[in-house]
Amino acid sequence: MSNNNAQPLWQPTPEAIAATQMDQFRRRVNDRHQLNLADYAELYQWSVDQREQFWSDLWDYAEVIASERGEQVLGKDTMPGAEWFPGARLNFAENLLRYRDDKVALVERLENGSRRQLSYAELYARVERVAAALVAEGVEQGDRVAGFMPNIIDTVVAMLATTSIGAIWTSCSPDFGINGVFDRFGQVQPKVLFACEGYFYNGKTIDSLPRLQEIVARIESIEKMVVVPVARSAEDTRAAIASLDKAVTLDDFVRTAPERALSFAQTEFNHPLYIMYSSGTTGVPKCIVHGVGGTLLQHLKEHRLHCDLKRDDTLFYFTTCGWMMWNWLVSGLACGATLVLFDGSPFYPAAESLWDMADEEGISVFGTSAKYIAALEKSGRKPRESHKLEKLRAVLSTGSPLAHEGFRYVYRDIKEDVCLSSISGGTDIVSCFALGNPTLPVYAGELQCRGLGMAVEVWNDDGQAVVGEKGELVCAKSFPCMPIGFWNDDDGAKYRGAYFENWPGVWAHGDYAEVTEHGGVIIYGRSDAVLNPGGVRIGTAEIYRQVEKVEEVLDSICIGQDWRDDVRVVLFVVLREGVELDDALIQKIRATIRANTTPRHVPAKVIQVADIPRTISGKIVELAVRNVVHGKPVKNQEALANPEALKLYENLPELAED
C-alpha cells in the first residue's frame, strides 16, 4: 500500500470485474447497439452522450415495474423542467415490494440490544395493513404523511404504505427539536403523522411525548397521530397517550381499519414521492420535492451497477430518517437484498459496536460517514484484528470528503480486500453525482467515478470544463432525479436560485471539486465555505486532511476571517482529554499543514474549543461559525444538533488581534 497516489490502494481482479453487474451491463449495451465500449470510461462517456438510450436501457436492465412505459424517454430537455418518461405510469412501493418470499427483508437493531426481523412476505402483509388504515383515515394521492421516527421497521412500513397510495412521504429523526420539526412539517402540512413515543441514544432513553403534544398543537393539518412504541411497551404507550389529542397507537390504528387488498396507485414519472429538507442553517429549510420515477431509476442504477447489490447481499447504512441516506438505503429492497436498520449511537456501548453487528448480521456492504471513520481511527480500533468481517466486500462513506488517511486506515485496519467507495451528491438529488464502482481501482482521497448518465464536470470561472484543476462541480445536462421543484415555490424562483443562478440551464451543485486524469473526483468542500486568503481559493477539506494526522486533535473546523482587507485562515480544534493547546502543539499543527500543502493553507490562528457545531446529520457548519465570528446572526439554529456550541465562538479575544 503506497503513499503515492499514482498507485491504487485496491484493484479488482479481471475475474471479479467480469462478475459484476456493471460489467454485465457494459457487455449488454455493446450487444444491443453493436458497440465496442471497452471499459467504464467508455461506458460512462456513451451514457452521457446517449442519455436517452442509457436511461432506456437501464429501465429494461433493472426491470422497472410499470403499468405503462410510454414511447418517449425524454420530452422537453431543459434544466429545470426536463420531462423524463412523460408517458410512464408506475408506483414506487410496487417496485420495492417486488419480492414476496421468505427471505429476510429487514433487520432492526436498537442500541439497547433489541433485534427484530421481517421477511419480504411479512413486509408485504404489514404494508398492506398500514395502507388500509391510511385509506380508511382518508389519505389520498398527493396528501402528505410525515414520520417523526427512528430508523426502525415501522418507519419503512409507513413509507411504503404511504407511497403505495400515491401519497407523499416526508420524515425527520426524533432528535429534532420542536422548532426544527415545525420548520419542516409545518411547511408541507401532513394529514397523518407517525411518531415514536421515545427512543434510545448513547445509553439514555429519551421521551418524545412532550414534543408530540406540542407538534400536534402547532401543526393544524395533522388529523391523526399514530404513535409507535419504541421505548415503552404497547400497553404502556396506549396508557401514556390516552389524553393526547388526535393520538392512536399503531396497533389500534391498524386493528380498527377495514381490510383492503394492497393496490399500487399508478402515477406519472414525476409524481411527488418524497419531500426532503435542506439543512436549514441559513434560514428556514427548503422543501425539496423528489419524483417517483427519477428516484427509483437513480437508486436502481446506484445499487445494482455502482454497488453491485444482489439478492444475497446484506446492506447497512448508518443513518437517521432525517438524512437522505435513509431513503437511499430503503431502496435496496428493490434489489431483494437484506437491509440492516440500526438506531442509536454508533459508539455505544463501545467503539466497535457496529463491527460486532457486521459480523453477527453478515453485512456485505457497510455504509457510514467520513466523520465516523475518522473517529474510529482516533479511538485506536482495528476491526481487522478483532472481527472476522467475512462477508464484507464494500465500505461506503459520505457526509463529507473522506481524507486520504481515512482511506488508508480502512485498508490497513478494517479490511484489505474491500471496495472503498467515497460517495457524494446529496439531499438535492437524493443520490450521488460521484460514487463507487466495483470495476475500478480505489485511489486515496478520490471518489472512484462519476455516475452513469450524469454529465458531471468541473468548471472554471469562465465556465469551461477542466480536468486536473479545481473548480465548481456542475451537471451540464438534465438527469431524471433532479427535484420536481420546491414545495410552496409556485413560480420556481427559489428552485432556480438554488442551482441555476451561476449558469442558466446548468446545475451548479455548490461543491468545490476536481476531476482527475483517471476519471475520479476529489471534493474539496462546499464552494461557499472555500477560503480565499490573498485571493487564492482553498478548499477546507485540504486543511482537514492534514489536521487529521495530528494525534492530539480529535476534531476541527476551519473558516476564513475577514482581516485587514484580506481573509486569514482560522482553525478551531477539539483536543483529546487532558491535552492543552500550547505553542509546541500549535507549531506541530502548522508544520503538518505546511509540509503537505502551501504556506497559504497554514492557519493564522489556531484556537482550542470544547465542541464543534454540527447539523443533525453530522455535518460541520463552517458558514454558521463564520457568521458568529463576524458578529452576524445564525438564522436557524434549530437545524443544529448542538446549537449551544456556537456560543464558544462569540467574541473571542484571539480573533481581535494580529
Automatic annotation (TrEMBL):
Question: Does Plastid appear among the keywords?
Answer: no
Molecular functions per Gene Ontology = acetoacetate-CoA ligase activity; ATP binding
Q: Which Gene3D superfamilies match?
A: 3.30.300.30, N-terminal domain of ligase-like
Query: What keywords would UniProt list here?
Result: ATP-binding, Ligase, Nucleotide-binding
Superkingdom, natural source: Bacteria
User: What family is this?
Assistant: Belongs to the ATP-dependent AMP-binding enzyme family.
Q: Give the protein name, as stated in the record.
A: Acetoacetyl-CoA synthetase
